[in-house]
């Protein structure tokens, strides 16, 4: 029983991080209709950014979220307004798939050249403490990571629900023509949404860096995870990302514990296929209707 | 009963109509939709654009509102050339298009729909006041302000779409087929609303297939056929035109 509880706890903590890492992907997919295969690069770039800030300047990874988010927001905005926009306007929405895939490969190689092939981890002072609750034991970093993820997801949900910026994003996703007629600059909003997605990914990367080892090649896994989270939870909302992420975390933890660590990928894809068969819009559906 | 509208066409200070469109043209990937659309909307009047399906009415008003970029032609608003300006900038100048098919934001509440367009710079300072004005015009929207727009009936969605346009404090309101798919009672309500808004000082460009109602209230009407304005005249005068009678009113 304790083993089960411990596994569940581990799964939920992992799931919280999956949720944060996926929410930007989900937003971009829902609002712009773009499957952004560069998403994992943003996550890993965030992790490397936190590593550099921590080792060179001694900045705590949780504080590093702010500068990393700002930089990735700018990078994401510029990337969407140039390369992605060019590809879409000259070819089609599908072209963005090829373009983001190509950029991801190049960016991965650049990261490998700059940081080398070694596996990195970020180890702030609280890395080696843990909390115990009866027989359950959990690392402090994991609690911190989960807490930070939940706070960031809640902030994003509030921004989307309550601010003019959030309403503008939702309106643009649902009805681009009417949004434009209502005075919204939808091209600019697409760029801002993409930037916001990249910033959330970078923030999750800084958190991932303190919980898990990472290399440049981990980016592939994080893009894939984001994709699975969106299929499980539903497109476009922080709530959908949270549900999908927690579910994925639990699947991962249970499979690793009870079936075998080698089979986690297989289990993830099995659930993915089943989900697509049974409920292709995800558990919470598309936040912006059936348009995509 | 007077056969002519009471108000004379009033030119503004510069001797120009408030909205003047000349020779607009648009192609949808090589296929010409609008060829030569020219019309004028004098300040304070109601102008109508009528014509059958596929005549190019919606394409024309989308160009005026900036949602489509014309291949040729000129759009002059209040003496200023606005040809090719994007829609979100045209709204800021005071032209609001209520699009065909209403296009409300289905997964947002009625209130959110209204607040969104009420946030344009030209109207932001008066947002609360404008909201009250829209709710006074459409009490149903006040009752349902917390409901998702997608749960409204067709007529209510049309009211919301018009309300969304009014939130931007327009000087010119363009209504694209506002009576489409509505019951006869609602159709009559929409037309009396158009009149009322016009009396409040908003110039209206009305695109309609409900030709009879439209010509009754329009000062001036333009008949669009295959992307070209083929006939124009005072609203009620056109009602008695033999060709309009035959083609658009089904009277031989």
Description:
The complex is a heterodimer of chains A (292) and B (252). Chain A has helices at residues 2-32, 39-57, 61-90, 95-115, 140-162, 164-174, 176-181, 186-211, 218-233, 238-259, 264-278, and strands spanning 130-133, 136-139. Chain A is mainly alpha-helical. Chain A has one domain (2-291): Orthogonal Bundle (ABC transporter involved in vitamin B12 uptake, BtuC). In chain A, β1 (130-133) and β2 (136-139) form a beta hairpin. The longest helix of chain A has 31 residues, at 2-32. The termini of chain A are far apart. Chain B has 252 residues and is an alpha/beta fold. Chain B folds into two domains: 7-94 and 171-178 and 191-252, P-loop containing nucleotide triphosphate hydrolases (Rossmann fold), CATH 3.40.50.300; 102-170, no CATH class. Chain B has helices at 57-65, 87-93, 110-117, 127-137, 139-143, 154-166, 184-199, 211-217, 235-239, 242-248; strands spanning 19-28, 31-41, 46-50, 72-77, 80-81, 95-98, 172-176, 203-208, 220-225, 228-234. In chain B, α7 links the parallel β7 and β8. The two termini of chain B are 23 Å apart. The chains are: A mainly alpha (292), B alpha/beta (252). The interface between A and B is medium-sized, with 20 and 28 residues.
Q: Domains counted in the coordinates of chain A: how many? A: 1
CATH architecture of the largest domain in chain B: 3-Layer(aba) Sandwich
What is the rounded Rg of chain B? 18 Å
How are strands sequenced across the largest beta sheet of chain A?
Answer: 1-2
Uncertain stretches of chain B? 1-14
* Mean pLDDT reading of chain B: 91
Rg from alpha-carbon coordinates of chain A: 19 Å
The tally of domains of chain B stands at 2
CATH topology of the largest domain in chain B: Rossmann fold
Output the CATH class name of chain A: Mainly Alpha
Category from helices, strands and their pairing of chain B: alpha/beta
How many helix segments of chain A?
Answer: 11
Number of strands of chain B: 10
At CATH level 3, the topology of chain A is: ABC transporter involved in vitamin B12 uptake, BtuC
Q: Please state the overall shape of chain B, judged from the principal axes of the Cα atoms.
A: globular
CATH domain class of the largest domain in chain B: Alpha Beta
Separate helix tally of chain B: 10
What is the N-to-C order of secondary-structure elements of chain A (H for helix, E for strand)? HHHHEEHHHHHHH
Task: Kindly report the oligomeric state of this protein.
Answer: heterodimer
């Amino acid at each position: 029983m304790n083993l089960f509880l411990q596994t569940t706890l581990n799964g939920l903590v992992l799931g919280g991080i999956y949720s944060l890492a996926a929410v930007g992907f989900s937003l971009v997919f829902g609002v712009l209709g773009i499957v952004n295969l560069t998403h994992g690069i943003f996550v890993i770039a965030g992790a490397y950014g936190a590593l550099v800030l921590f080792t060179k300047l001694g900045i705590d990874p949780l504080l590093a979220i702010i500068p990393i988010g700002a930089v990735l927001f700018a990078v994401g905005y510029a990337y969407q307004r140039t390369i992605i926009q060019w590809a879409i306007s000259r070819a089609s929405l599908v072209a963005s798939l090829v373009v983001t895939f190509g950029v991801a490969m190049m960016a991965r190689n650049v990261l490998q050249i700059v940081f080398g092939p070694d596996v990195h981890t970020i180890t702030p002072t609280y890395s080696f403490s843990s909390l115990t609750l009866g027989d359950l034991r959990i690392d402090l970093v994991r609690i911190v990571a989960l807490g930070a993820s939940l706070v960031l997801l809640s902030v994003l949900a509030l921004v989307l629900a309550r601010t003019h910026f959030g309403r503008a994003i939702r309106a643009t996703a649902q009805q681009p023509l009417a949004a434009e007629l209502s005075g919204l600059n939808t091209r600019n909003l697409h760029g801002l949404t993409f930037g916001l997605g990249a910033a959330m990914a970078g923030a999750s990367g800084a958190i991932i860096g303190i919980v898990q080892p990472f290399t440049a090649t981990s980016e592939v896994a994080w893009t894939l995870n984001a994709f699975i989270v969106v299929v499980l939870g539903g497109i476009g909302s922080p709530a959908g990302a949270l549900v999908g992420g927690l579910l994925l975390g639990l699947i991962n933890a249970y499979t690793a514990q009870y079936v075998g660590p080698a089979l986690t990928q297989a289990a993830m894809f099995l659930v993915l296929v089943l989900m697509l068969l049974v409920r292709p819009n995800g558990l919470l559906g598309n936040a912006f209707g059936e348009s995509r | 009963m007077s056969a002519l509208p009471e108000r004379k066409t009033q030119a503004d200070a510069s001797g120009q109509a408030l909205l003047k469109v000349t020779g607009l043209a648009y192609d949808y990937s090589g296929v010409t939709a609008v060829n030569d659309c020219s019309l004028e909307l004098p300040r304070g009047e109601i102008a109508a654009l009528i014509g059958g399906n596929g005549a190019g009415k919606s394409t024309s008003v989308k160009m005026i509102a900036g949602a489509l970029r014309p291949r040729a032609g000129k759009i002059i608003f209040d003496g200023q050339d606005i040809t090719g300006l994007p829609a979100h900038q045209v709204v800021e100048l005071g032209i609001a298009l209520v699009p065909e098919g209403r296009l409300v934001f289905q997964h947002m509440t009625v209130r959110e729909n209204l607040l969104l367009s009420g946030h344009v710079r030209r109207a932001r300072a008066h947002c609360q006041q404008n909201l009250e004005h829209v709710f006074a015009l459409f009490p149903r929207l006040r009752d349902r302000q917390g409901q998702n727009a997608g749960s409204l009936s067709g007529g209510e969605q049309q009211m919301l779409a018009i309300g969304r346009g009014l939130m931007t404090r327009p000087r010119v309101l363009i209504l694209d087929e506002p009576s489409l798919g509505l019951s006869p009672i609602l159709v009559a309500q929409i037309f009396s609303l158009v009149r009322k808004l016009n009396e409040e000082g908003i110039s209206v460009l009305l695109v309609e297939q409900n030709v009879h109602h439209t010509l009754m209230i329009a000062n001036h009407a333009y008949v669009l056929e295959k992307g070209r304005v083929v006939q124009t005249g005072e609203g009620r005068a056109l009602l008695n035109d033999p060709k309009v009678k035959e083609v658009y009113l089904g009277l031989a």
